[in-house]
Amino acid sequence: MIQFSRLDHILVSIPEGKTREARAFYSGVLGLAEIPGDHPGGAIWFQVADIQLHLREEAGGSESLRHPAFEVKNLDAARQELEQKGVSISYSSDIDGRKRFFIRDPFGNRMEFLEFVS
């Protein structure tokens, strides 16, 4: 059984060319603290209580990159269980301090599973 710890983050798509406008809204209007860094795909990250909100430009299409990210206690065990159940695993760019993979549900919704590593 997969041992979920918490919801780590949600990635929300924004239209191409709108990062500056998104930053102004989420930081300036909502007052969220931006998490500095060179994030994958040019994303901007904000802290919202104990989870993160990631915003990334996306052209749109049937295979969206939008997703929730679930922190789990043992990523390798979660991957093995999902593979045994016939779920396809995919990988993306590396992020320091995290191991991660992605799956899609039967409806095409993307989900990230991650584990923090030292």
Describe this protein's structure.
Pfam families: Glyoxalase (PF00903). Residues 6-116 form the VOC domain. It is a single chain. This protein has two helices and seven strands; from the N terminus they run E-H-E-E-E-E-H-E-E. By secondary structure, it is α/β, with parallel strands linked by helices. It has a single domain, classed as Roll (2,3-Dihydroxybiphenyl 1,2-Dioxygenase, domain 1), CATH 3.10.180.10. Strand 2 and strand 3 form a beta hairpin. The chain is globular, with a radius of gyration of 15 Å. The protein starts with a strand and ends with a strand.
Oligomer designation: single chain
Number of helices: 2
Q: What is the spatial order of strands in the main beta sheet?
A: 2-3-4-1-5-7-6
Sheet/helix structural class = alpha/beta
Summed up, the domain count is 1
What descriptors fit this protein?
2 helices; globular; seven-stranded mixed sheet; 118 residues; alpha/beta; 7 strands; 2,3-Dihydroxybiphenyl 1,2-Dioxygenase, domain 1
Give the topology, please.
Blueprint: E1 4-14, H1 19-29, E2 33-35, E3 44-48, E4 51-57, E5 67-72, H2 75-84, E6 98-104, E7 110-116
Parallel strand pairs: 1-4, 5-7
Antiparallel strand pairs: 1-5, 2-3, 3-4, 6-7
